Amino acid sequence: MASAARFFIRGAHSKLCITGIGSGTQSTFGATFLKLSPSSSSCTKTQRRHAAHFTFQPDPEPTQYGPTQKMNMFQSVTSALDHTLANDPTAVIFGEDVAFGGVFRCTVGLRDKYGKDRVFNTPLCEQGIVGFGIGAAVAGATAIAEIQFADYIYPAFDQIVNEAAKYRYRSGNLFDCGSLTIRAPWGCVGHGSLYHSQSPEAFFAHCPGIKVVIPRSPVQAKGLLLSCIADQNPCIFFEPKILYRAAVEQVPIEPYIIPLSQAEILQEGSDVTLVAWGHRKAIHLLKEVANMAQEKLGVSCELIDLQTILPWTLKTVCKSVVKTGRLLISHEAPITGGFAAEISASVQEECFLNLEAPISRVCGYDTPFPHIFEPFYIPDKWKCFDAIKKMISY
Amino acid sequence: MAAVRSMNKMYGVCFRRMAGLKASRLLQHRAFRVGAVHRQEPFDSTLEKPQFPGASAEFVDHLEFIQPNVISGIPVYRVMDRQGNIINPSQDPQLSKEQVLNFYQKMTLLNTMDRILYESQRQGRISFYMTNYGEEGTHIGSAAALDPSDIVFGQYREAGVLMYRGFPLDMFMAQCYANADDLGKGRQMPVHYGSKDLNFVTISSPLATQIPQAAGAAYAVKRENMNRAVICYFGEGAASEGDAHAGFNFSATLECPLIFFCRNNGYAISTPTNEQYRGDGIAARGPGYGMLSIRVDGNDVFAVYNATKEARRRAVAENQPFLIEAMTYRIGHHSTSDDSSAYRSVDEVNYWDKQDHPISRLRHYMTARNWWSEDDERSWRKQSRKTVMEAFERAEKRLKPNPELMFTDVYQEMTPNLNKQRESMWRHMKQYKEHYPFDQYVK
User: Where do the Dehydrogenase E1 component domain residues begin and end (chain B) (predicted)?
Assistant: First the structure.
């Protein structure tokens, strides 16, 4: 069943590749859907609305890392992988369908450039992919494994939680799989339904020994991915797949590192702290929310991108909450047991005397991720806006 | 049976061909070998043949299901009989007296250590133990056929491999006692050994997880091009896990120099093999994955040695995985938490202990050559018992590691969050120290 569903989506996305290559505009998803179902105009409208639940706004061009080039997110991922293969002869990239370039085009051209013993397909088996990656890392190779969708990472849960995360600890540091990185497309995509939309970071946040990282843009993606690959701990790197083509900005050509376990303040504010990560985060959806709050309510929002889910840093968030006295956390994953709960409890513990209102969590509902109801499911800007309104008048 | 025989014949041909190749050519072949047997036939629509990409086969015009052959399964390769006589001289590995004595001493030393540590668990001196009774031959025979640089991934009943590679008794004991000398820093349950120096990857409890990991390590080793192989041990029960399927398939499709070594001892805790599988054991699965496979008598240390030696040679030369299924019998209980008389008869256990044991069989072989006498046996028993007891007493006296080590190695670096928890623990301990067993731990 799972593989049939995957094949369907694969087909859809290879269409996307053909129509979307090089264009990299925000409307790629909508436009592609038009081509796929020309007969149903109402359906097209709905789909377009799903995909555009936020507007990608590029970060200011980073100048500190040398010359830049316009890239979307899948291209910046390819660029990071390219540097890694060029600089580290032990590095290998593997997973389902990575050899021809990947179903999201993240590995295009790498096999031709570096050889089929370094960029190769594996059998269709997630527990095998992660187990194989652990073994390669144990034997000293830099292993970059791809899980085709974050939704299909669960067959490898045992290898990640019981093995990868505990390798160094249980062996007394005799052995480790620190040179393993697992990449996986993540988050909603407008029409991905139950198994092409999930945000499973909270399942992994409960697991000491691994790092979980989620970028918000092409620039962050390249810098954070290179950090993950260089880091001497097993890392899971979730790539917001809705940004693969939608997000285009100037990305440094040379390799550069963005440190893990550091949150980033994207916009200073004084009344409310907004925390998110991935595509839901401040600079996209929450930035719009902040603008709305400023315009309609005169409320000044401070926006923070958490970037690293585990091991996460409390410092930046707490410093902000001490200043603003209010905190809103938003994520797409279901609310119960979501990572917002962890942030919320920790901030409450650290900033009890500074809090002016209960901490607000605007998250997905406690249901599976639905197909046709996606516009009602996602914690969009209106839900966030309303939460801010209530917090301010608390 | 016919199928098996013709398969053997085919392998025989391969053997000879490979033997004819010069070593240098073999090396060149390593990196980018394209095994003709693994390739499908090229597409040619003019032929009146099946053109399906998924398999290379002829059409057949009658309906016939392929019958599994479980009554007359893959034969069990054996070099010496139960009395230690070599059956076919061409298969005699011709090991020197020193080598054979070393085999015997390592097997019996393991046996002695097992008895003492088993008893110590019964007395509550260590928390847990798993013996290796009846499977000593599989460990020593296979370990001896490997290069010391070959990476070993094990399950938990392969202590003899470490013993053969020279892991000190003190280190075995340190791990079981989780004392301050334990290389694993006292974090895992007993018998979860590991040694970086001896290329023995630390054991973990989740079954079969090491199987796809071994494939990944073998792939990395292949790319290193240093003539190393990987061996991966597992029981027949673990072979039912999804990870076994993953590891077999990955190693075949990715052409990994890897030996899968299955210890089929008849039981997974209480579950007999007829509740574990319905095919012809584990060896019969190998060809389904495109893997060269063999079944050996696990109580015959020479049969195990020969099979492993040849599998190792070819795995490294040809970059392909091999499967060895060693048939044996788990004479001891599954672990110290298990009483096996609840699910199997004492007679059955006695047969394997008294009449078909790897240690006694090798002893017959040695006695027949006048390499070993009753006196040698008595003095070796005495001496091995003494060395084990001495290590045991040293380990027992040693303190446990500093509790600080609970927090290190979670990540390579100490994270701020963990550091906070570490400090919090010590603050607590300072205030409530009388409620914690500090006297047993290194300060």
Answer: 105-404
